[in-house]
Structure formats: structure tokens, C-alpha cells
Design brief:
The structure holds three protein chains of three kinds. By secondary structure, chain A is mainly alpha-helical. Chain A is 70% helix and 0% strand. Chain A has one domain. Chain A is globular and about 60 Å long. Chain A starts with 9 loop residues before the first helix and ends with a helix. By secondary structure, chain B is an all-alpha fold. Chain B contains two helices and no strands. In chain B, helix 1 packs antiparallel against helix 2. Classes of the chains: A mainly alpha, B mainly alpha, C mainly alpha. Chains A and C meet through helix 3, helix 4, helix 5 and helix 6 of A and helix 1, strand 3, helix 7 and helix 8 of C.
Amino acid sequence: MTSRSSGTDMIAELVLATFFGLLLLGIHRKIIARIQRRPGPPIWQEILHMLKFSFKTTWIPKTASPVLFVGVVLIAIGIWTAAFYILVSGGSLLVILGIYMLHKIVEHGFGLSSGSPYGKYGGVRSVISAASEIPLFVTVAVIAVYTHSLDLSAIMQYQQVHGPLLIIAFPAACAMFLVILSKMPFGPFSIVEAKELVSGYKTEHFGIWRAGLEICNGLKTYVLLAVFLAVFIGPLSLPWLLVGMILLIVILAFACAVTPMMSPFDSVTIQMLVTALMLVYAAIILMVVHP
Amino acid sequence: MMMKKKTVARIFWAGAGVCVIASVLFFMGMIPLPLCAALLIVAFPVTVLSLFFCWMAGESGGDIPFIGY
Amino acid sequence: MINLIGGVPLYVLEFGDELVYLTPYTITLFLLALTFTVLVLISRPEKQVDIAFGGDAYRTKEISVSEMRFRRFMAIACGLATMGAMVTGDIFNFTLFTAMVGITNVGIVAAVKSPHVQDAAYQYGLVSLSATIPLFGGAAVYAATTGSLSMIELMKGTLPAVPLIAKGMLMLGVIGEGMAPFYAAKAEMFRAPGAPYVIMCSLSSLLIFLRVVEVVMLG
């Protein structure tokens, strides 16, 4: 988790992170199923899922915009690869935040490029759910007030001296948790892939395209959880990092299992409400901690 | 546009080559991290997709349903 | 208060007052804008399928080539304006590029023959027009209080501190170009066919927002 100099095998780490992220998604599904008294799939189901899709027949729908249809899959994997390297090099939190927001563009690309009405509505909903990004900005602002830097390495150093930000800035951690929750499948805010839209933005991306999207999802889950731990707990050794991520996914799974999926309107209202609370919190922090 | 299995396999090996060479060079400290990351960001998605295309494709001529039907 | 987010400028290009500078952060944003602009250039629009929900009827929309040609032009203009805003080192140029992004965003969907989209574009246009007042006002306060609009000068820390109101106005101006909570009209604009072009609407305001976060941290 600390800044890497030479001496680490980057591609191996990337592949392992992808598979571990998929495993985390599998654990997520399993726990949700057990809470809902279903047997649920095995925890490696998401990995199998990705492999299954990679063997399926693949083509491009006749109505699709071919370059965008394919390009967006490459971009999806590419941006989260970039986020992964920013994470391992202890780079700027703001860039990771930017990539999180760019994922929305990827969702638009997936949804709109096929011409399918279901995909289109998934894309439109993903614009609407842009409200989930604002708590993230406030979180980042609050962290910057404490640590005077937005570099992940500096944030981790700060926590080594002053203790975890989870305790110092608990509301910010809650807001960031909500942000991660809104990107989790089967969660209360996952309106972009609601079942009334078949599969939302990913309806028309099947076969290899979907396998690529699964890889992106695995990497995304890994990066988001690792960033949460890095920002709010501090530097962790690899075994503890993995344990922390599993713990976090368990909490997320509980949150997803016990809440129904909201309507788009309610989802946005709640996110806006959280934003307002966070703005008040940030204003208090700015006046008290940093007058 | 039809893609033959051989073409896709070549793309895969080229992409995998870039990935491995970049991370080996970084491992030995010969290139800085940003350069290594930039190479991997470009090469990794291409490698993954071409790997999938490569292993799902049949051997016989134009059976690769890449773009076109 | 906070260390430079963007990192140390790697390269500064000066044309008199107009200067362009690149930091690791702005290079990343610039490359993203470039990628999507190239995508707009080379990709053909999709054929949107409409269905009547609850029934089996569906039809493919027919869109004329001339309409798409105009929209592609607007999308490329939008991409160029975004790229400009990413690398410029001058606050006034930044506001100009931002205003241009607002105009081209309306242009991208203005040619679509759908009342929903036209309404949304009109509403979005009104919001982004009003947002240019705090945007240019913010730049004016920057110039009035520090005597400079150059980000390089602001970065040095020798100028008087920029008042919070100027930063707030600049931020508000950019948020008005299509960030939450002013993005509601934008969601309707996404009904328009022509995915590669429509995506530029969303991408441009997002990238400009990410850049303005860096800009307000200076000085």
C-alpha cells in the first residue's frame, strides 16, 4: 500500500487485484443470499461468470455505434487500471475521484452506444445518479483540511502520526461508505442496473464485452475498497489489507441485503440529503479545525 | 471486418509482451513508474480482450464472429 | 493551505500573456478529453431503437446525415474547448473555454428533432447562461484583488491571497455548466440519439469541474 519503488511486479499485482476484486463481489453475493435465506452461489461465482462470458458468442448489434461500443470496454478497463496504479504509487486522491466520476461516462457509453432503449434508460439514470459524487467531493475537502495534502501517501503518513481518520473524521468516512455503496451491485442506489431495465446500461454488452466489463468491476471493487482503507485506516500490510477489504464487503453486503432498491427519485433525494449534511459538516470543520 | 484467430492471437502476444516487458523493466528499476503505468494502461485492456477473442474463436476460417453479422 | 494538487508544472509554453502549462494532473485530464474527442471523430452514431413499453412494437429512428454532421462538428468543438480548458494557464481563458463548453453542449443536442430533448436543451442553456455571470465575475475578482490572471503567478504565492468569494464564484460558474445539482436538464438531453456526441456533453462538464478544483486551490 505504501509508495512503490522498483522491485514489484506490476502486471502480476494487477491481475491478482482483478481476481481478488471479483472474489469480493462473489462474497458480497453470497452474504446477501444467506441474509435472505437463499443458498446463494459459491463465492468464486463472479470469477466463473467472467470466464463464462469470455467463451460466449460475441458480436456487435446492428444498431450500435461500433467504435464506441467496443472502445468503451477498453476505456472501462483502462481507467480502473490507471486508478490501480495511482493507488499503489500513493498518488493523488483527486485523480482517483476523477476516475470514479469518469466511470459514469463509461456507464453512459455502455448504455447509449447500443441503441437499445433499456441501455439508454440505464445511461439516463446514470446521469441522474450523478448526485452520489458530491458527498465524495466534500469528503475529499474535509480530508484535505486535516492532512494538508491530497496525496494518498501523505494521507497515510498523517494517519501514522495522528491515528486513523475513521475516528477523527467519522462523518466523512460515512459519506465515502455511501459513495462506495452506490457503486455496489444489488444495493439501494444501483438504479442503473435495475431489473425493470433488464440489466440497465449493460443489457446489450454480452459475451466478451461483458467479460471485459466484469474485469472492470473486479478492479473497481478492489480499488474503491483499498482507497477507503488507505484514506480512513492508514497504511496496512497486505494480509491486513485483504482482511480489511473482506470486512468492508461484509458490511456493504449487509447494507445491500436489508435495503430495497430505491426508485430513481428517492435515490437522488437521499444522496442530496447526505450532500447537504456533509456540507454542514465541512463548514463546521472549516470553522473549528481550520479557522 | 472479419478477424482471424491468428490475427487476434498476434495482438494478444504483442499486448502481453508489452505488459510483461514494462513490468520487468520497472522491476529492475530501468523505467519510472508513470511510464510503466502508462504502457500497462494502454496494453492491459487490449491484451485481456484479445485473449478472450483468441480462446473463444474456432480454428476454421471465418468463424470468428467479431464484427459483421 | 494545501500543497499543489496538480504537481509541479512539467512544461510551460508562453505566448505572451497566453500561457499553457502541463502538470501530471492536467496531462491526465487532457489525454482523457483527447481520447473521447478522437472517439467522436472516428465513430459513427448508433441507430436508436424506440419501443412502446408493455407492447411488442418497436422502431428504429431515422436520422439525417446532415443533422449528424452538424452535431459531430459541435461535439468536436466541445472536445477542443475542453482540451483548451484543461491545459490553459490563464484564469480568463479558462472561463472562456468553460462558457464555450456550455454553448457547444446546447449545440450538440439542439439539432435533434425531439420535443423532450429540445426542451431540455433550452432549460440547460438558460442555466448555463446564467452560470456565466458568476464565472466571469469570479475571474474579474481574481484580477481585481491579485492583479494577475496567470495561474503560474498565483502558484508562486507572492501575490495577495485570493478572496474566498472569487473562488466560490468560479466554482459556482463551473457547477452551473452541468454538475449536480444543475444537471437535471442534462439527463433529458441524454435521450438524444448519437451516443458518441451526447457523451461529450457529460464528459466536458466533468473534466472542467475536475480542473476547476485544481484552479481554486491555487493562490
